[in-house]
Design brief:
Structural class: mainly alpha
Largest sheet: none
Number of helices: 20
Number of strands: 0
Amino acid sequence: MTSVQVGDENGPHGPQAVATPPDTGTLHPEGSDQGYHRGLGARQIQMIAIGGAIGTGLFLGAGKAISKAGPSLILAYAIAGLVIFFIMRALGELLMYRPVAGSFSEYAREFIGPFAGFATGWTYWLFWVVTGMTEVTAAAQYMTYWFDVPQWISALVFTLVLYGANLISVKLFGELEFWFSMIKVTAIVGMILICVGILTLGFSDAGDTASVSLLWSDGGFFPKGIGGTLMTLQIVMFAFLAVELVGVTAGESKDPEKTLPKAINTVPWRIAVFYIGALIMILSVVSWTNFQPGVSPFVAAFDKMGLAVGAGIVNFVVLTAALSSCNSGMYSTGRMLRDLALNNQGPALFTRLTKNGTPLIGTTFSAGLMMIGVWINYQWPGEAFNKVVSFATISGMWAWIMILISQLRYRAKADRGEVPQSSFKAPGAPWTSWFALAFIGMVIVMMGIDEEARISLYCAPLWALGLFVSYRALRKRDPQGAAFVPR
């Protein structure tokens, strides 16, 4: 099938050609905006990309990871961050070949096969539904810092507010993400500067003991051994989930050829500053032995410094981080469902858009399922976060695997002259893509060893079986449909 280049945004029939449910067997025009409004500018795309790399995995999950690995967590983030950059450059190569909304399932469908596209679309949708539950859980936990209110009430309010905001317009989503990300970035930079001040000037309660030597003096750099560091990889990779969100925004970006590569190329410095830099500073001011699971290391660090006001401010920041991620989940789920429906791999009613270009029914359906997170917070308020984070990790990593395999297949076809070359090639490919795949495989093995994370590997085969049965039923109903014919 012929693919169009980046400049051909609207396809041969224009954007309105797919604004209504497609006829059976008809795929939407490749490279089109699929009826969406291109309302996301460069400013918003940049901050969405930055915000995708800063979330609950860092602000809350890092507490558990530090208790498991100590200062060596810094090395785990550095290596995982390199792998994330390889994944993002692979995605960038595909995006510049053909920028479309629902990009992961589109590329999997084209370069791997119809079932891969079907499984990727539905699994990435599930990832964001589960992540939405995770993030509202984290936000509800943060609210208990100030108010004695049941977690499930906070989770319910946050879910409803973000659902309403996502129905208004993609521009409002972009603005929310811009300011959520701005708060996170400003707070982390401010925290790093405060830590530098403590290390150099010695103020606050931690001033007398703060030293870079804390990175190796309390049991060494690997206090729990190499094994302890490896066991944190699931938490580390969860922290990076959603960095690929820029791929979902491709169909609603005003100038994808310029904004998306720029956003992707900022990944290394984002990881260096917001993860590695922040952890080095925190662990140099407060010993790793003071951190524990379920407590934000940023809030705990300010408490140990005796800066109660700072702890309250940081708690507000981590609250916005959780809401930011849940907001992204609301945005992504409706669009993934619509992409599936446009390709006859989901109910046709999910194709409908409001006059503002938002997928009302798909977003509503997804938000309804996110309400399960409210019930989890009601039943197990102390364990809710850990119960859903593992499954979010395995489902999110599936998207990364499909991105890497799709890029390998695409590059092979492009080198043979079967498809156009991308204007944004991944450096070091295919070796970098193979390395990233091997690393993800190692993380999955570590999850199998970890008793707490193992439940997600039990659930994954059940989800895969459900997808296979559903796919076979759809194909039996329409065996010649375009969505089921290999490209």
